[in-house]
Write a structure and sequence with these properties.
Layout lengths: L1 H17 L8 H10 L9 H12 L7 E2 L2 H8 L6 E8 L8 E7 L2 H20 L8 H5 L2 E5 L2 E6 L5 H6 L2 H21 L3
Antiparallel strand pairs: 1-2, 2-3, 3-5, 4-5
Helix pairs in contact: 3-8
């Protein structure tokens, strides 16, 4: 009887031990799984980015004429089927060249097409010899910038009049590049 009781207790303890919880995952797998579940950061709207860039330049923002979708297609060759939202502004006064384009591409293929069109537009501007002399360095400093699913064309800002009058072309070009970098910084800040 004692033997039978002992065998039964031993069998029960073995059965209980096999039911103990065992984690099949190690810590790295748990951490990796938790990282996957973190919500993605929401990309900012075109309007939010636009407001940030305009605020960065304040009264020095001269691109004050908003283009329609048809005007954007005609001027830059960007089809409305390539983007979900867009803002394109140029100055009202033709003596100025300040331009800001913010295009939110529908997909990767559309982003490539928009970038190609804006790059071609920029190259045509740089080669155009009929520009006002005061705009030549600003045009050369212009920038096509890509961030996430956005494509930007940036040609903004102003530099010190004294530098513009007495500086070398390299100094003036560098100053305008720094102005465009202000816009890039404002854009990047919206993605944090």
């Amino acid at each position: 009887m004692k033997k039978k009781l002992l065998v039964t207790l031993l069998a029960l303890s073995l059965a209980a031990g096999s039911l103990a919880p065992v984690s099949p995952l190690d810590n790295t797998a748990v951490v990796a799984e938790a990282a996957k579940k973190k919500p993605k950061k929401k990309t900012p709207s075109v309007n939010k980015i636009y407001k940030a860039v305009v605020a960065k330049f304040g009264e020095g923002y001269l691109a004050d004429l908003k283009l329609t979708k048809d005007e954007i297609k005609l001027r830059y060759g960007i089809s409305s089927s390539w983007y979900t939202d867009i803002i394109a502004e140029i100055p009202m006064m033709s003596a100025h060249v300040d331009t800001l384009i913010i295009a939110k591409a529908k997909n990767k293929t559309a982003k490539t097409k928009i970038k190609k069109k804006l790059t071609s537009y920029r190259q045509a501007l740089v080669k155009d010899t009929n520009q006002y002399p005061m705009n030549l360095m600003k045009i050369q400093a212009s920038k096509v910038y890509v961030k996430d699913n956005y494509v930007f064309f940036i040609m903004l800002g102003s530099i010190d009049t004294k530098l513009e009058e007495t500086g070398t072309d390299e100094q003036i070009l560098e100053a305008y590049k720094k102005e465009n970098q202000k816009a890039v910084s404002a854009i990047n800040a919206q993605f944090k």
